[in-house]
């Protein structure tokens, strides 16, 4: 009797495991099957934008200390170089990278890293098993002319970034704070407590980068991207669910700015429990 009981329990566990695998495969095949998404956008990861003045002062103190070779912002780095020749034009890129990793802010759009396999610098989808985060000074030189220079902080543009033409005449000057354009426009529910309502990234006086709108409790309400002042890609609205991040609606905008004759449309909608209630025809799983 005991043998059959154990056999029965084993069968139940096996069936449960198969059911979970089937659900996982179903979710992978149909990403819209549930509106519940990662908790990476929970209030605990709310972007601080370096609003902590004390933290700023401490960083400045560290920077004023005697600099040691290949150590930037207190982190040991290694020097890298890339060379590319195209149409008799030689381009050099000089940079530093760190073997250390830092948990990336999910709100930062561009994380720059050196892909050691393809020998190139990427700004998306950082893979620690494939490369390293840029950290420290960066220079781009074309035919011995400095074209661009700046600093990275764990893959994020930081401080002042300059770009020049081939006559070394300054063309652009931008300021960043750990990946955030310093000209970003921020509105608050409560400025004293840094309760952010909306965060709009600005470059060259145009909206450029990831936009965020939050509920008063810090839960994300809307995410999307601007390019050259235009809404692009998928914009997502979320329910104020308190405990989970649940998609409410996704709106598809043009993929390329200034696309003519493109009309935004609702791609999909979910109820408060994350159940799919609408999806535009033709968007089903393959």
**How many distinct folded domains?**
2
Query: How much helix, percentage-wise, in residues?
Result: 10-25%
Residue fraction in strands: 35-45%
Structural class by sheet pairing and helices: mainly beta
Calculate Rg over CA atoms: 24 Å
> How would the global form be characterised?
globular
* Strand element count: 22
* CA-CA gap between termini: 47 Å
- The residue ranges in which pLDDT falls below 50 over 5 or more consecutive positions are 2-9
Mean of residue pLDDT? 81
Major β-sheet, in short?
9 strands, antiparallel
Region (Disordered): 22-41
Protein name: Antitoxin component YwqK of YwqJK toxin-antitoxin module
Keywords: Signal
Organism: Mongoliibacter ruber
If you had to describe this structure to a student in words, what would you say it looks like?
The protein is mainly beta. The protein folds into two domains: 35-50 and 183-281, no CATH class; 67-177, no CATH class. It is 14% helix and 45% strand. The longest helix is centred in the first third of the chain and has 28 residues, at 2-29. It is globular, with a radius of gyration of 24 Å. The relative contact order is 0.11. It comes from Mongoliibacter ruber. Residues 1-19 form the signal peptide. Residues 22-41 are annotated as: Disordered. This is Antitoxin component YwqK of YwqJK toxin-antitoxin module.
